[in-house]
Amino acid sequence: MRIIIAALLVLPLLAAAETFPKADPAAGRKLADAAKCAKCHSARFGGDGSAMYTRPDHRVKTAGQLLAQVRMCNTQLNTGWFPEEEEQVAAYLNRDYYKFK
Ligand code: HEC
After folding, report:
1. Distances (CA, A) of 99 to 2, 18, 62, 69, 95
2. Best label site of 18, 48, 67, 90, fewest CB within 10 Å?
3. Percent of the chain with pLDDT over 90
């Protein structure tokens, strides 16, 4: 019984160790490149558009907000991504820019 309780306590910690644990960031990167996400962002900030994610006052502060923002921008683009694909893109942006735990 003690072991089960210990496992129940530890499992959520393990799950929290990696944000978007089931999503493949490499696949997300391909999706984001193909969808030309950066085009719109670089029109506003110049360069490759990644300043959108790294600007000091960037809006996204949590993993949940990141996923929500990917969804919002994705809807504007009308790429027709599935929710799993949105998670892959969020995982890619998190790995390379946001680094939420
Ligand atoms: C139609 C133009 C447009 C396209 C296309 C677009 N975005 Fe955006 N995106 C914006 C704008 C504008 C903002 C800034 C919103 C703000 O500051 O209020 C933004 C902000 C973001 C942010 C949050 C940045 C922050 O402040 O932390 C993320 C993440 C993001 N976009 C992801 C994506 C992804 C992924 C795609 C491709 C599916 C995409 N965007 C395509 C216009 C666009």
Report:
1. 35, 10, 10, 15, 6
2. 48
3. 76
